[in-house]
Amino acid sequence: MQSSRTKWCRKVLTAVGVSIGALATSSAALGTAAAAEKFVALTQIVDHPSIDAIRKGFEDGLAARGFVPGKTVKWEVQSAQGSPATAAQIARKFVGDEPDVIVAIGTPSAQALAAATKSIPIVFAGLSDPIGAKLVESIEHPGHNVTGSAQYAPVGHQLDLVKELVPAVSRIGVIYNPGEANSVAVLARIKQEAQSRGIEIVEATANRSSDVAASAQSLVGKVDVLFVPQDNTAVSALESIIQVAYSAKIPFFASDSGSVERGALASVGMDEQIIGELAGQIAADILEGKKPRDIPVALGDKTSLAINLKSAKRMGVTVPDAVVARALHVVE
């Protein structure tokens, strides 16, 4: 017969074995969960409402596929605060962190990432000319590790709106950063469309946000209208342009509804929320195993009209009721 002491030892050893087995199983489960967690990092060139709307759309598009930023996926966001040098630093940091996908809002941020890595998938959001920025080979076949969503500015519709609200316009002053490839590409299209409408374009450059006010002021007395394309530098300092427009009673047109809410007279632009959602869907495709080179660039095609009636009054413009009726966004 076994002694009671022997039986007791066997029970203890059995219990320990069960506990160790349970611990091993638990550790394995945790290891699997950790391995399955995805990491998405996002960098944006600057902070302003239009970019914020694109980022919100991106988060929504990603979450719609089950990848909820900060919950089911690791999530990090950094802004370059308008500095290309800072954008390059963020790009190098993110590459070192080795996320599953890096997202870029703004051409300078996307270019910095493309220069920093040829292997980690990059998804851009809201660019106007990804081909001109040398980020993709074509819209249908991006090639390499970069793809995303693009919004081609409806410059023809924008100029038609200017002529509708300011019929006597003959010269438009465009404020932009010549260092942004996106803005340079849009300006070329603006010039082409303006020529066919008998309008002269006068350029005013701003390399930094702090230069924007002086650039806007330099156009006073030289132009009939102020205009800002999808330029992150100019939009980040929009209030300084608005003050010049108010003081000189010059109509100021923008390219996005967010700028109209801040005080620009009017805009015809793409829906930033949708542009962001398209990029979010692309990022989800990559997290599920697709390669960027196999995912065509998604193009936004929905435009909307925005009008700020309060600014129209301060800038000396009467907005016809028919234009107000067409507007999706009206600020009163």
UniProtKB/TrEMBL annotation:
InterPro entries: ABC_transpt-TYRBP-like, Peripla_BP_I. Residues 1-24 form the signal peptide. It holds the Pfam family ABC_sub_bind. Keywords: Signal. It comes from the Bacteria. This is ABC transporter permease. It comes from Pseudaminobacter soli (ex Li et al. 2025).
